[in-house]
Amino acid sequence: MEAASKRILKQLKKFSSKHTRDKTGLFIAEGERLVKSVPEDIVEYYVFSEEKAEYFAGRIDTKGFPVYTVGEDIFKEICDTVAPQGAACVCRRQRCSFEGLFLNKPEFIVVGEEIQDPGNLGTIIRTADAGGAGGLILTKGSADIYSPKVLRSAMGSVFNLPVFTGADISDVIKELKERDVFILAAHLKGRVTPYKADLKRPSAVLIGNEARGLSEEAAKGADLLVKLPIIGGAESLNASVACGILIYEAVRQRYGDDFFEDKGLLQEN
Question: What is the DSSP string of 46-111?
C-alpha cells in the first residue's frame, strides 16, 4: 500500500467523465459492496482513503494488485457519492459483441432502446440479472453502463450480465429475427397484456426510452406489442418497473413456483 502518485491522482480525477472512460477503457467502482463484486480479471488497482485504509485492508482482498491511498478531500473529489465509504477500484471495461452475447445461445434477453436515466438503466441491469436473463442489448443513446450512478443502481450486476452497447435498433431487430427470437415489446398501442404472450421460447423483451417510448421502427419490428394495464390514475409506469414486470413474467412462465420451492428459493433465510 502506497500513497498515490501525481499520475494516479490525475487519472482518478478524470473518471467522472464519459470521454475519459471511453478513451482509457477504464472506470472507477466505489463502495465496499461494489468493490468486492469486481471480477479479478478486470482489476487495475485499488484506492483507499487514508482514514479508512487500515479498516479496508482487513475487509477487502486486494489479491496482490496495487493499492494506493489518498487523502479524504481527494477521495471525495474522485467519487460521485456525497459521503463516500473510502474504498474504490479502478477497472477495465468488459467488452461484449453481439455475437459474443449469443455465444451461449441465451433463451431470454432484454433490449433497451435509448434508456437514458442512469437509475433506470442500473435497475434494469440488476433485474435482468436477478431474473436470469442471458444478456442485455442497449442501443445508441443509452446511458453509460460504467457511469457511477448506473454502477451503484445495478449493485454489481453489471459484472454478471453480458451487455452489448451502442447497437442500432434496426440491426438488433434483424439479428433477433434471423435467430428466431420472439420479440415482445411494451407499447401504448398494445392490445393484450404480457400474460398472454408465450415467453417459454427464445425471447427478447424490448423496452423504450423513458419519455418517448419505443421508436416506430422498434415497434414495427416486434412480434407482439403488449400493454401493462393502468388501474389507478397514473399516466404510465416507470421504464425499469415495466421492464421488471415483463422479465418476471418470463421467469414465471419458464420456471413456475414448483421450481423455486424445490430449490428452496422461496424459503425464509
Answer: EEEETTTHHHHHTTS--TT--EEEE-HHHHHHH-SSSS--SEEEEEEPPP--HHHHTTT--SEEEE
